[in-house]
Amino acid sequence: MRGLLDLSVAEVAAGLRRREYSVVDVVSASLTRIEETTELAAYVDVYADRALKIAQAHQTLLGNGIDLGPLHGVPIAVKDNVDVEGTLTAAGSRILQGNFSEEDATVVARLRKQGAIIVGTTNLHEFAWGGTTDNPHFGRTRNPWDLSRSPAGSSGGSGAAVAARTVFAALGTDTGGSVRLPASMNGVTGIRPGIGRVSNAGVYPLAWSLDTVGPLAGSAQDCAVLLDAMSGRDARDPQSYGHPTNSLAAMEDRGLRGARIGVISGVSRVQLQPAVLDAFDSTLALLERLGASVREIEILDLEAVVDALVIVDAVEPSAHHAPWLRSRPGDYGADVRANLEAGLVIPAVDYVQAQRYRAHVRRQFSDAFDQVDVLLTPTLPFTAPGVGQTTITIDSAERDVLTSLMRFTALASVPGLPAMSLPIGFDADGLPIGLQVIGAPDDEAGVLRLGAALQSQTDWHQRRPSLA
User: Fold this and answer.
1) In sequence order, what DSSP letters do the residues of 140-208 get, joined into one string?
2) Residue 178 among the catalytic residues
3) Helix, strand, coil percent content, the chain, rounded in steps of 5
4) pLDDT > 70: percent of the chain
5) Average pLDDT, integer, range 196-213
6) 57-71, 297-311, 312-326: lowest mean pLDDT where?
7) Is 74 within 8 Å of 116 (Cβ atoms)?
8) Which of 79, 155, 158, 199 does the annotation list as catalytic?
9) pLDDT-derived band at 324, boundaries 50, 70, 90
10) What DSSP letter does each residue of 299-320 carry, written as one string?
11) From the CA atom positions of the chain, what is the Rg in Å?
12) Which residues touch 360 (CB under 8 Å, ≥6 apart)?
């Protein structure tokens, strides 16, 4: 039987308007679920009293016929590098202890304007710079499907919080894959919008030219509702641009017939765990049965895509953190400090060449989107590794987990394209497998449309971990 927290954003909002339950009921259910799942270490702070007070006010508004929008009364969580007025934004660090936010990040303000209620902040890899959410200051987040497994990172707390059904959605940030990786490992849906679609104002930076903010939720349709609320130009962020003309959540359901789908030659189907390859191939076959055309697309010069990501994602944070690295090196976790120190010695010429390479890759992808609507890859070459696991064997070869994490997500991060991860199956251990949908520049709608159409024909996104 489906419980209140198993509903979609649209379903819970509709029930509130029909007065089947109150906003206080919904927020109370969320807070109770958070208390029941503390072993996940998904949250660093919970705003129970504040959230309940806002819930009562939102219920009064509904009773008076005032509807704030599609998120009215919906509890969500926010990653702890996104400002929430009057609360600590530590970015998972000791460095920022005492950093209380004087105002909401733009994305938080926009979600609140549509009626969302923030119930807490979620754990992350320190300063969003890592793929595990093993945080030396706030604890190690666990995967709801298997507590001995990683939830990925850096938005691991947000992924675990949504998978465990503590909230209907959570905000994450994505630089090299930090929304999509936790979405994949935790069996939820998460979208990284293209650079500029969503304001970064009030979001603690990692790498300014790569960073973006995106939602994790139960479905592509739920992600669309949140992204609608979050998107648009913001004077506080010069990279941001105008809202799409049409609502993403109200996008036309075109089904899959006639959809042009690309698979990147020599990239999308190699060096994968067998279960991941099987799920990917099964999804391609399903898409073809539903009327889509699937073709291989050759995109040249992708060999250095992860290297370029690593260079940019080392130099930009190191430049930002250099003063603290000199004055407070002991306050960083060992892995983040090592990353910062490495970034400081990368030659400027390497950084410039990496940025030039990004522009070249962007042109290559632009040409590919003349032939197809979306590109598909697995989100990850493997399912969730054990917590603390550093290597993994694929095709009889031992590979570094952290480097391998970004193999597919870098394909969207480097050119700054919109990309989403959604669940497409499980391995023999019951661990989720994710599909990455990469869209053309500014085509978040195409990514969400493909995801929603696929989810209308499958139920992988409706599966629940036993913890939930």
Assistant:
1) E--BTTBTTB---SSSHHHHHHHHTTSSSEEEEEESSSTTHHHHHHHT-EEEEPPTTSB--TTB--S-T
2) yes
3) 40, 20, 45
4) 98
5) 98
6) 297-311
7) yes
8) 79
9) very high
10) ----TTHHHHHHHHHHHHHHHH
11) 21
12) 301
**First and final C-alpha spacing in the chain:** 12
Question: Which residue is associated with the tokens 């073709």?
Answer: 295
Q: Report the DSSP beta bridge partners of residue 391.
A: 400
pTM score, whole prediction: 0.97
**Alpha carbon distance 463, 434 (integer Å):** 13
- The structure tokens listed for 118 are 């923030």
Q: Which domains does the chain have, with CATH numbers?
A: 4-230 (3.90.1300.10), 260-299+360-453 (no CATH)
Torsion angle of C-alpha atoms 162, 167, 171, 172, degrees rounded to 10: -20
pLDDT at 1: 43
> Residue 33, by phi and psi: left (phi above 0), alpha (psi -120 to 50) or beta?
alpha
- Which residue bears the tokens 């509903």? 7
Q: Are 296 and 262 in contact (CB under 8 A)?
A: yes
- 305-327 and 348-368 are packed helices; what angle lies between their axes, rounded to 10 degrees? 140
Beta bridge partners of residue 146, listed in sequence order: 143
93 noted as active-site residue: no
257, 290 Cβ separation under 8 angstroms: yes
Q: What pLDDT, on a 0 to 100 scale, did the predictor assign at position 208?
A: 97
Cβ contacts of residue 77 below 8 Å, gap of 6+? 43, 118, 119, 120, 121, 122, 157, 158, 161, 162, 166, 167, 169, 170, 171
Alpha-carbon distance values, 168 to 76, 133, 357, 435 (Å): 6, 21, 38, 21
Interatomic CA distance for residues 160 and 186, integer angstroms: 6
> Of 154, 184, 231, 318, which residue is the catalytic one?
154
Catalytic residue among 178, 231, 240, 413: 178
Q: HSE on the CB side for 240, CA within 13 Å?
A: 18
- How do residues 159-182 score in pLDDT, each as one tens digit? 999 999 999 999 999 999 999 999
Per DSSP bridges, beta strands 293-297 and 260-264 are parallel
